[in-house]
Amino acid sequence: MIRDNDVMNALLDSVRRFVRERLVPAEDIVAETDAIPEDIVRDMKTLGLFGLTVPESYGGLGLTMEEEALVMIELCKTAPAFRSLIGTTVGIGSQGILIDGTPEQKDRWLPALARGELIASFALTEPESGSDAASIRTRARRDGDHYVIDGSKRFITNAPQAGIFTLMARTNPDDKGAGGISAFIVDAHSPGITLGPIDRKMGQKGAHTCDVHFDGVRVPAANVIGGVEGRGFKTAMKVLDKGRIHIAAVCVGVAERLLDDTLRYAMERQQFGQPICEFQLVQAMLADSRTELYAARTMVLDAARRRDAGEDVATEAACCKYYASEMVGRVADRAVQIHGGSGYVADNGIERFYRDVRLFRIYEGTSQIQQIVIARGMVRAAQAMA
Ligand code: COS
Question: How close is the Cα of 233 to the center of ligand 1, in Å?
Fold first, then answer.
């Protein structure tokens, strides 16, 4: 749902300009230094990018899912690391508070998140618990009006920058499954929290992940999201449903950038006395990328509109994440192929995007997890009809 077309077009124009004038020229420096320059972070805050999804009553822009998807598509026509910095706050780090938090929790944390003063990180994955999210071992033991948290989380995006973690921990050790898990808002500067070294990743330089260790960390009982134990897994799943549409939009944005660059190259690059875009085998690759990109974009916007209309989109969100992340992998592969030798060397960003996009098929649920979610959703829907 787009609430006001003029306001939306103005926002998309300013994001487009910001990407073109500030982010694209900084791509090399981000890759070389593995950091986003401070002045760009400042401008991202000024532009309101950290508050895109926080409701207006808390100082954000309160974008609908469709509006968020459109902004992500524009914002991601550059290195994905820029989106990653705001991504956990706009997406999975803050959504638990937004979706299931109490009014007091929203009042306390959302305004600072919207201003970008506080970065939120989503802490679900553990060394022994990835796709099987219900098997987490991090413990939260009640002690008076606090919980004491012990355990480790792994691959936590933006952990080095985080001000708070949305943390899933087991409050009921007798329930080894989803029902024993609660979600907490944890101050990242609490005594007992230590960070592991920053992970050395295949791509996405400038976006940081690391382990986070919790050793006797005391968290007020008031920080249980929603104030009720045992609901943390469902909160995490609801957050991921929305996050999957968000990531699918990110994939569409990156794919649009890759295809724009590739088309331009194919129109300029001459071989056998003509631009290579005149060759039918190159045309086939361009056409396949264009077709798949169009399909992914259409899916993302449809799922976003359905979510805005209040539909349960767990299945559609998984379809979008699955298709769009696989699609951008194929688009990146064809981009390298069409660029030939220039696509394989590190001087025009194509090989960097090729490495960057590999992550999309893995995080926020692997392609195989999306397939499971989709198939289970189909069976559930069929059973409901019977
Ligand atoms: N929204 C709300 N509730 C949900 C839900 C959703 N999308 N998905 C599941 N639930 C509920 C179920 O209804 C069930 O509730 P009841 O016990 O009341 O019936 C409960 O959560 C457990 O669900 P389920 O039995 O389906 O859980 P499983 O352990 O089988 O796991 C998958 C389901 C595999 C889908 C889940 O573990 C998953 O998404 N894994 C991937 C995690 C991931 O994306 N990790 C990436 C790291 S975060 S960047």
Answer: 7
Q: What is the pLDDT of residues 196-224, one digit of tens each?
A: 999 999 999 999 999 999 999 999 999 99
Closest Cα to atom 10 of ligand 1: 234
CB–CB of 210/196 below 8 Å? Answer: yes
Q: What is the pTM of this model?
A: 0.97
To the query of whether residue 66 is one of the catalytic residues in this protein, the response is: no
CA of 300 from ligand 1 middle (Å) equals: 21
Q: Where in the chain is the domain with CATH 1.10.540.10?
A: 5-115
Closest C-alpha to 362, from 199, 254, 244, 258: 244
Residue limits of CATH 2.40.110.10 in the chain: 120-231
Q: 193 with 184: CB under 8 angstroms?
A: no
| CB distance 372 to ligand 1 below 6 Å | yes
Contact residues for 303 (Cβ-Cβ < 8 A; gap 6+):
65, 245, 248, 313, 316, 317, 319, 320
The CATH code of the domain at 234-385 is 1.20.140.10
Report in angstroms the alpha-carbon separations of 215 from 151, 183, 362: 7, 17, 28
Q: Residue 212: what are its φ and ψ, rounded to 5°? A: -130, 125
CATH class of the domain defined by 120-231:
mainly beta
pLDDT digits (tens, 9 = 90+) for 291-330: 999 999 999 999 999 999 999 999 999 999 999 999 999 9
> Which of the four CATH numbers 3.90.79.10, 3.40.50.2300, 1.10.540.10, 1.10.260.40 does domain 5-115 have?
1.10.540.10
